[in-house]
Write a structure and sequence with these properties.
five-stranded antiparallel sheet; about 170 residues; 5 helices
Length: about 170
């Protein structure tokens, strides 16, 4: 998926009994149900906690008239964490372990007040080295309310098999 027109338009997925290993099929795509607006609190608190001193995150005066616009940029790892969090109820509710996170790209700036929605596509479904779980590889995107893609990554998760964990 390279542009906003490629984002899934299927109904939002709402986790019920659909996040077991057996529930995922290669090619499935959906927009997750919830969105979240990033406020100044998240950006300022986390950016300062991790000592990211980039003025684009801390200094409103420095941003006026900059190439980025008139407001501070949201620290990219906040955007990434929020996007992954929005996907987790549908993709990792039955996770045993996060295996990997690759292909991380921050495609556009995010600013205070932007609302992020998450989208997912299942890339691969494969057995694990244990009988009670399997590995699912996802592609995730974070996009603003106007479908501007701001974040993307690939993620592998070890997920429980319903056949072994559900009575």
């Amino acid at each position: 998926m390279t542009d906003a027109q490629s984002l899934p338009t299927v109904d939002p997925r709402i986790t019920e009994d659909s996040s077991w290993f057996e529930s995922f099929e290669v090619g499935q795509r959906w927009r997750h149900f919830r969105g979240a607006t990033i406020d100044e609190v998240e950006n300022q608190l986390i950016t300062k906690m991790v000592m990211n001193t980039a003025q684009e995150h801390w200094n409103e005066a420095a941003m006026r008239g900059s190439q980025w616009g008139e407001s501070r940029l949201v620290f990219g790892l906040i955007t990434a964490s929020l996007t992954l969090g929005l996907t987790s109820q549908d993709t990792a509710e039955n996770a045993l372990a996060e295996i990997g996170l690759d292909g991380i790209r921050f495609r556009a700036g995010v600013f205070h007040g932007d609302t992020i929605y998450a989208y997912t596509q299942v890339l691969a479904v494969e057995p694990a080295d244990r009988p009670d779980a399997g590995i699912v590889e996802f592609q995730h995107w974070g996009a603003t309310a106007d479908t501007r893609i701001v974040f993307e990554c690939r993620r592998k998760v070890l997920i429980k098999r319903r056949s072994h964990w559900r009575p």
